Amino acid sequence: MKAKTVYIVILLLCAITLQTKALPTQATSAPASLGTSLTSTFSSKSRVKTQKTPKKKSKKSEPYITPTASEIEYAKKKSDEWAEKMKKINPKVHLIETKHFRIYSTYPKSHDGHFKSICAKLYRKMCRQFGISPKKNIWIGKLSIYIFATRKGYETFYVDVIEKSEERSQKSGGLSGCVGAFQYVLIAPLKNSVKSKSQARSWFLEVLVHESSHAFIARYINNNRIPNWIDEGIAEIMAATFVPRGSAARKFVSAAKKARKNGSNIDGIFDCRNIPLDSFHYGIAQSMVRFLIRLDQKKFINLIHTLKKGKNEHEALQEAYGMTRQEMVKKWYRYISARRRR
Ligand SMILES: [Zn+2]
Question: For 64, which DSSP code?
């Protein structure tokens, strides 16, 4: 389905009044061990069909909130402030500015061109996945990305600047969050330096895609949060799609296998602000979201819109799929069991 068609679908499904409010302070982590390509999460040639309506020239609203000038100014000011703090941790930090990103890196400058082109490509791809024209700017100004060449630098920034726990800083591989209108992404290097260069590259890309997806979802339609397991599930699918040979593409298979074989408890993904930072829970979240998309993509889009309207997970599941969470989990077990037999 073309982006334009998806856009119409989104508008049809979305009866949301866009509000101009600041993003709440929030953060979403990627596990330290990040890692069936979907050609498109939201915009594939799906069962989503648009109703034929007479062609009318109407003013289109964007599937995100247009930021105010003061929000853009605040985001830039905060971005600069954090860059100064990063400089105190590592004086080698420098800015790489692109159309949509402010990338602060402590890697040697020889990496700059690579980071620039990855981010440009990523933005275009994410826009396509969400049915938004890449000519549009979904961010409040630009998205700030802080890239750390050392774990020590990342963990110090995580604890001292973002004021998050030391334990999470050690377990996580990246972070996406916001302070008011300022949105940020943090990327850590691969923990195990024994791994090969290509593994390190793949890891970097997966974390970048994963965390940027959170930032994208946070801006998509409005600034309301969606349940963490759905947010993580989508971010993992995006990582698996962009890096098909990475760990996210395998994680959901092994997690589902473990759940099927050992009857492992999957309740840990529900009713929490952040799902546990481990491969199993991230894999289950991804598998569950894949299942919901597979069940009915149109309903999945509807689910996201209902959640963004402010409905809770139970109400949204009922409204979009006509099922309870318990029924969803039951069906998911049946789904992963049937896949084993194929
Ligand atoms: Zn995440």
Answer: B
Closest listed residue to residue 120, CA positions, set 88, 105, 142, 149: 142
Ligand 1 mean position to 53 CA, how many Å?
Answer: 39
Q: Which of 229, 174, 237, 168 is nearest to 207 (CA)?
A: 174
Task: Identify the segments of the chain with pLDDT beneath 70.
Answer: 1-60, 193-194, 340-342
Q: What is the pTM of this model?
A: 0.82
Give 56 Cα–ligand 1 centroid separation in angstroms: 40
Q: Is 39 exposed, middle or buried (0-12, 13-18, 19+ CB in 10 A)?
A: exposed
Cβ-contact 119, 100 below 8 angstroms: yes
Among 179, 189, 242, residue whose Cα is nearest residue 212: 242
CA–CA separation, 280 and 232 (whole Å)? 12
How far apart are the C-alpha atoms of 115 and 119, rounded to whole Å? Answer: 6
- Per-residue model confidence as pLDDT tens digits over 8-48: 333 333 323 233 333 445 566 555 433 233 334 444 334 44
- Report CA(172)–ligand 1 centroid distance (Å): 9
CB-side exposure of 21: number of CA atoms within 13 Å?
A: 11
CA 89 to centroid of ligand 1, rounded, Å = 25
Instruction: Extract the tokens encoding 292.
Output: 């919901």
Residue 80 burial by CB count (10 A; 0-12/13-18/19+): exposed, middle or buried?
middle
Q: How far is the CA of 282 from the centre of ligand 1 (A)?
A: 8
Q: What are phi and psi of 66, to 5 degrees?
A: -70, 125
Predicted pLDDT at 144: 98
